[in-house]
Write a structure and sequence with these properties.
mainly alpha; single chain
């Protein structure tokens, strides 16, 4: 996943995520717009991810990657290809 917006979309969208973590839809919509999920919500997202959208699991490294944006380190397979 390349960014926070695509992460939220893969979990079923901001309304579905908000319901699952018991937050207001406007809160999750703001994360999507801002491109950042406060770290204190990461454990909740990881816990509910298997029940949402097309993702079967979510890990901390995927959340870090979604926040890294253009500063992300290349994956191991990308580094080998160079």
């Amino acid at each position: 996943m390349s960014n926070v917006a695509s992460l939220i979309d893969s979990l079923g969208g901001y309304a579905k995520v908000a319901e699952a973590i018991e937050e207001r839809p406007s809160t999750v919509a703001a994360w999507k717009h801002r491109g950042s999920v406060p770290v204190r919500y990461w454990p909740k997202l990881i816990a509910v991810a298997p029940n949402l959208g097309e993702r079967k699991a979510l890990a901390y490294d995927a959340l870090v990657e979604a926040h890294a944006g253009p500063f992300a380190m290349p994956s191991q397979s990308e580094a080998v290809a160079r």
